[in-house]
């Protein structure tokens, strides 16, 4: 398992270097400059390719790896995906509903999903925090999206 | 004259009512964020950048200095109270700080940490004041070839000093450099790797990378471990008072480690983390009663705490005098300076001496306020550690979103934040260190431009790097820093098996 983790990472990095170089080749060329804009990307692509091969054949120090390894089970993965999804929703609605409404929804839903039990406290925190920050930034002359709230 | 002028102006701003208020805000927020396990100066600086926008530049600077020192101190606080280091640089603090807290002397440990941080930081700043100008005078003669070599050295140093596999650290650096190539090329105007997306034409904001790789990736870890009950027990703080005997025991480590820590901090790649470990082990070797180490020894706490703060100041030497950061944290600090319109480097001292000295004075003031304002408030600030994890996680994400959005006012950057958060999390899973990534990302553009400028000057001839003595020696040192550690490990293993 541990061994395959490094090899998997090496394979992914190998693919990244190939894709990166593929796009580097397609960069348009200029004649008048001694070093064109594709030179550095080539060098980087080749370096990453070599490094991914080295990583693939590298022996991993076992004792160290087992100790600090992060364990993810299915429920943790589910939770991470869920938070990522509501983060995306938050970003989509950020300018549509406005800063205060979208942030309130995000803080409330994500705290609830992560297992926060005191609903009343959650409601209060998720409503007041965005309002407070809205006005702090207003004071600093930075205006956050108003969105659907008409009275701001 | 310029120096005195700069110092007096820096003092004037810092000691105004507004100045004190913003230092206090900076120190408090820095401490709060630094306390949260996994979140450190990078996140704290990132979240505070938007707040500094409309501010007077001197005020913004002293606030940031407060944030920086506050975050480091916050890391020590959670090391002592929870045995959960807030940042890497304070891991060694927990060795003796946590046992002290278990014995009911958390207040004493915090006071020792604060005083040692202050001494380490202050000595560091004084050394910085003398070393940075000297280095800047040398660096004025640097051309693009020298700059390229210097930046390469910084990158090589951080990869060779990061623990674990060196190829992984190098991969991290190359990936960061690759991300830096996204956007319009500065010399030919060619859009690179933008995939036709107009949002990518200007490249990617450094804060997206910083908060994604460090804050969001760490949030993912917090989500996984959110039910871990062992980390929610907080020790009573108790009295902050120190005895004469304590001071006596602190004196030796403080005077030694502030020097050693500073020197380690100046070196590219080596930062607070390495300084604090060296501080701990060297004090243990020098101690009269080494068996007390790990059981709440005063010297065992004073050593690493002094060293990491001295290193924190030392890290500013290359940043201010050369404009080149040597660590992930100073890389983000450079980003913050650039947002404020300050370009650190050798010209900063000669062309804007008041600003240069104001930065240094503000660090000094930030350090003093940390001691006199922050320490008495610690019992209250540490209450943040009692915020239930689910709420804390939601709020950290919320703060990252504010930080990113107010930087660009572009929702696209929020998607990028999530993207780099996922990248950072995956890197954590396979143990690829994120620090070389952010350093390479911030240096990448400068490195590429100086490389190409150098080659343009020489008409495409690589010999420019060999003919210029400084450039060549810097390149040789970078090469050595890449080759020596593996060789060293190889011989060590050979000796062990023989």
UniProtKB/TrEMBL annotation, chain A:
Membrane spanning stretches: 7-27, 39-58, 79-108, 120-137
Source superkingdom: Bacteria
Family annotation (InterPro entries): DUF1468
Domain DUF1468, residue spans: 9-145
Keywords for this protein: Membrane, Transmembrane, Transmembrane helix
Protein name, per record: DUF1468 domain-containing protein
Upper lineage: Bacteria, Bacillati, Bacillota, Bacilli, Bacillales
TrEMBL record, chain B:
Protein name, entry field: Tripartite tricarboxylate transporter TctA
Secretion signal, residue range per the UniProt entry: none
Keywords of the record: Membrane, Transmembrane, Transmembrane helix
Domain DUF112: 20-439
PANTHER family, A to Z: TRICARBOXYLIC TRANSPORT PROTEIN (PTHR35342)
Membrane-spanning ranges: 21-51, 57-75, 109-129, 135-157, 169-186, 206-224, 259-280, 322-342, 354-375, 387-407, 414-443, 470-491
Pfam families listed in its UniProt record: TctA
């Amino acid at each position: 398992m541990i061994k395959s983790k490094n090899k998997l990472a090496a394979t992914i990095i190998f693919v990244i270097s190939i894709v990166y170089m593929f796009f580097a080749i397609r960069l348009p060329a200029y004649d008048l400059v001694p070093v064109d804009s594709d030179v550095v990307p080539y060098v980087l692509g080749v370096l990453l390719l070599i490094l991914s091969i080295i990583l693939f054949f590298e022996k991993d120090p076992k004792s160290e790896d087992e100790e600090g390894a992060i364990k993810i089970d299915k429920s943790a993965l589910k939770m991470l995906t869920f938070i990522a999804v509501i983060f995306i929703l938050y970003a989509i609605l950020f300018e549509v509903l406005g800063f205060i409404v979208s942030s309130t929804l995000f803080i409330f839903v994500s705290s609830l999903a992560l297992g926060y039990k005191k609903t009343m406290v959650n409601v209060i925190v998720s409503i007041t925090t965005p309002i407070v920050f809205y006005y702090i930034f207003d004071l600093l002359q930075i205006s956050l999206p108003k969105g659907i709230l008409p009275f701001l | 004259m310029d120096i005195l002028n700069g110092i007096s102006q820096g003092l004037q701003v810092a000691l105004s009512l507004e100045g004190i208020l913003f230092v206090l805000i900076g120190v408090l927020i820095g401490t709060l964020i630094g306390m949260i396990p996994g979140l450190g100066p990078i996140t704290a600086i990132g979240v505070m950048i938007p707040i500094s926008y409309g501010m007077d530049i001197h005020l913004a600077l002293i606030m940031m200095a407060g944030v920086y020192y506050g975050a480091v101190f916050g890391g020590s606080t959670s090391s002592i109270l929870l045995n959960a280091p807030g940042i890497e640089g304070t891991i060694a603090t927990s060795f003796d700080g946590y046992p002290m807290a278990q014995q009911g002397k958390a207040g004493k440990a915090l006071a020792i940490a604060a005083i040692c941080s202050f001494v380490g930081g202050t000595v560091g700043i004084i050394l910085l004041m003398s070393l940075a100008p000297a280095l800047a005078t040398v660096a004025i003669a640097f051309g693009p070839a020298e700059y390229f070599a210097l930046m390469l050295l910084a990158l090589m140093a951080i990869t060779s000093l990061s623990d674990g596999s060196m190829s992984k650290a190098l991969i991290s650096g190359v990936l960061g450099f690759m991300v830096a190539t996204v956007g319009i090329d500065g010399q030919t105007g060619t859009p690179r790797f933008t995939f036709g997306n107009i949002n990518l034409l200007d490249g990617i904001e450094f804060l997206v990378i910083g908060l994604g790789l460090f804050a969001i990736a760490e949030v993912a870890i917090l989500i996984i471990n959110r039910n871990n009950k062992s980390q929610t027990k907080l020790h009573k703080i108790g009295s902050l008072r120190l005895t004469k005997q304590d001071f006596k025991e602190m004196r030796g480590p403080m005077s030694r480690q502030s020097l050693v820590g500073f020197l380690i901090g100046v070196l590219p790649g080596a930062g607070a983390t390495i300084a604090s470990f060296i501080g701990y082990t060297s004090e243990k070797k020098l101690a009269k009663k080494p068996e007390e180490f790990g059981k709440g020894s005063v010297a065992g706490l004073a050593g690493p705490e002094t060293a990491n703060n001295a290193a924190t100041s030392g890290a500013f030497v290359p940043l201010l005098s050369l404009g080149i950061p040597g660590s992930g944290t100073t890389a983000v600090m450079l980003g913050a300076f650039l947002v404020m319109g300050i370009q650190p480097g050798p010209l900063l001292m000669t062309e804007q001496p008041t600003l240069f000295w104001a930065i240094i004075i503000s660090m000094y003031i930030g350090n003093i306020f940390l001691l006199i304002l922050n320490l008495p408030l610690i019992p209250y600030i540490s209450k943040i550690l009692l915020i239930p994890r689910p709420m804390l996680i939601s709020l950290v994400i919320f703060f990252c979103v504010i930080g990113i959005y107010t930087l660009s006012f572009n929702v696209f950057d929020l998607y990028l934040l999530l993207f780099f958060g996922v990248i950072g999390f995956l890197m954590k899973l396979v143990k690829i260190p994120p620090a070389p990534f952010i350093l390479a990302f911030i240096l990448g553009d400068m490195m590429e431009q100086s490389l190409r400028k150098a080659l343009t000057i020489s008409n495409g001839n690589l010999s420019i790097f060999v003919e210029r003595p400084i450039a060549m020696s810097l390149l040789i040192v970078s090469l050595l820093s890449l080759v020596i550690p593996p060789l060293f490990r190889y011989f060590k293993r050979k000796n062990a098996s023989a």
